[in-house]
Amino acid sequence: MKSTLVVTALLAVILAGCQTNPVSGRTQLVLVSEEQAQSSSAQAYAQTLNEARNKGKLSSNAALNNRVKRITDRLIVQAGNMYPPSRDWKWSVAVIDEPTLNAWCMPGGKMAIYTGIIEKLKLSDDEIAQVMGHEIAHALLGHGRERMSRAMATQGGLQIGSILAGHDLTVLAPVADIALTLPNSRENESEADRYGIELAARAGYDPHAAINLWEKMGQASGNGPPQFLSTHPAPGNRIQALTALVPKMMPIYEKAPK
């Protein structure tokens, strides 16, 4: 009886947490409020930057920092047009001096890009705009909140499974995490590609750079993990999808201020 009530309660919470994203129109599981997501992200961001600062890993290259800020400032303006509530976010961008091929944007607009992706791939301004446009799109599309919510739902499901089975099933957490989150994570990446290239085009950055970027990423990654165990679409699939989007983005780019 108790387990039935727990299952019923969890299902009710999950159903109540299904919301339609205002940018994509897709229904998402959102159990974490925007305020909670932004607050936790701000704390994590401050901790990340403090650690990087203590290790001497925050870039002191003024030219590079200014370049990244100039590009992201243009993207932020268009983010506000795409998703008006983001105009009130406390946007911030950091350049972290590490060889990692990575960048990210947390809920609320806390961003970072690593020198490795800029320097190893010799990124142009248009290509940096594609990287950061993609990451900003993740935030506009609520993917951070969705990821947090799925983690909560997974943990809740495992706890209920333990009750029903009469023993602890939390050892299966890694498998459950892959089973629950992997397909949607790939979907999120494809969504961020779609809206990221549009965001960059609106900001006056050439959509063709998205193809160039992922060609470079494909060459840099070499023989990566198989696609079914990756949260990112395979570079070839990604390039094919972006190539189909470029003609639709060109009119937006041509009308955008340069």
Question: Could you characterize the architecture of this molecule?
Answer:
With 258 residues, the protein is mainly α. 65% of the residues lie in helices and 7% in strands. It is built from 9 helices and 5 strands. A 3-stranded mixed sheet has the order 3-5-4, with helices on both faces. A hairpin with a 4-residue loop joins strand 4 and strand 5. Helix 5 packs across helix 7 and helix 5 crosses helix 8. The protein is globular.
List keywords for this structure.
mainly alpha; 7% strand; 3-stranded mixed sheet; 258 residues; two-stranded antiparallel sheet
Characterize the largest beta sheet: strand count, sense, and whether it forms a barrel.
3 strands, mixed
Helix content: 55-70%
Amino-to-carboxy terminus distance: 64 Å
Shape: globular
Question: Secondary-structure map with pairings?
Answer:
Blueprint: H1 2-16, E1 18-20, E2 27-29, H2 34-54, H3 62-82, E3 92-96, E4 103-105, E5 110-114, H4 115-120, H5 125-140, H6 143-165, H7 173-202, H8 208-221, H9 235-255
Parallel strand pairs: 3-5
Antiparallel strand pairs: 1-2, 4-5
Question: Outline of this structure?
Answer:
The chain is built from nine helices and five strands. With 258 residues, it is mainly alpha-helical.
